[in-house]
């Protein structure tokens, strides 16, 4: 295998289908592919995942195995059950950096035990727009300094377990009203705002030693009027890489792109051209595989990079530099992982954090439930990052604590409140909402329900922006499984 072809394979981070490594993937790893991305479709159990990563390492001992495991709403490790860890907003609400560090360390320990050594996390986005459709509870909060200190703690905790952190979504996805999975978001903030808000947590992550940073497919005209950050030399080379003395962040680690198959890139530039442009702009690793996960995609991208070098569109030295940065991270994970073997487990840290993140408002003195209730789950359409395969809510845990409890799922139809009342009969209603402030139908249904049943308990599992309503209002600041457990404990007095 010639050096150019090997380097072109090295910079790719593809996904694949199934819970076993396909032959084509193993063959490419043997030829120089240095990274593999995992998603929920690849994971059935910790034991299966450990066997999968061991098979990959039989082909290449230092292969980077990456995963999108934020905890909270975005989980791949526990995609079928819900996460054992609350997400960033819950941690930001508690605002205990030692807790954040301990939780990230335990998450890293579990990933390392399964053979995963690169986590596309944490999200360092400042959620300055509460109507943001894709970040929300994935952010530590709206205060840049709070987000910065928890981002740093998360990076330190995760990497202390031998798993490389990939801080995202540079230069900040919090002030967007569009999901880049669907279209190109645009942030019209000026450079002063960008430095005072979006970049503060990324500077903290760099100072904390984050091994990787993920670029965002967002357009910031004040920074680059033509190109999204992933494709912008101004954003990647001129801002992220530039020395601190020149106004940059001085980052010298691995720059990873967000998924190139996302519509913000694929729908405008195409993944082949977009990948060439990203590398030329300063990215080092091309993430592709959330929606495109096949042998043909890898070969198309490999060949596109080789052709771009031969045509003079991509400097061979730039490709070689990117490939060496990938290999350098692989070496770090091999050394750090060996050093951290035997990290003491902390299995309860996630539930402890979820309990501490609860914010409870009682309109009247509340007596814990002793009898079965009816859980009304008001379910919005899930964003792509979260997915719709991960269960959420309080129904399962309340059914365990209060046998006979039932759960119904309700959408945006006009008769929602009537159906809830009919299904509940004489049982108390526990209404579970998610970002009620962003969904007028949800707020309207809830108001109609409370008008008839003011004793309804309301559990908000998204951003807690709407005014508390209900006889008891429980804000969990996320929809992880442990957030549901913590809320159910309060409702049932467990």
From TrEMBL:
Please report the name of this protein according to its UniProt entry. Sugar hydrolase
Q: Which GO terms describe its molecular function?
A: hydrolase activity, hydrolyzing O-glycosyl compounds
What keywords are assigned to this protein? Answer: Glycosidase, Hydrolase
Q: Which positions fall inside the Glycoside hydrolase family 3 N-terminal domain? A: 33-327
Q: Which InterPro entries match?
A: GH (IPR017853), Glyco_hydro_3_N (IPR001764), Glyco_hydro_3_N_sf (IPR036962), NagZ_Beta-hexosaminidase (IPR050226)
Q: Which Pfam families match?
A: Glyco_hydro_3 (PF00933)
The UniProt entry's sequence similarity note says:
Belongs to the glycosyl hydrolase 3 family.
Annotated GO biological processes are:
carbohydrate metabolic process; peptidoglycan turnover
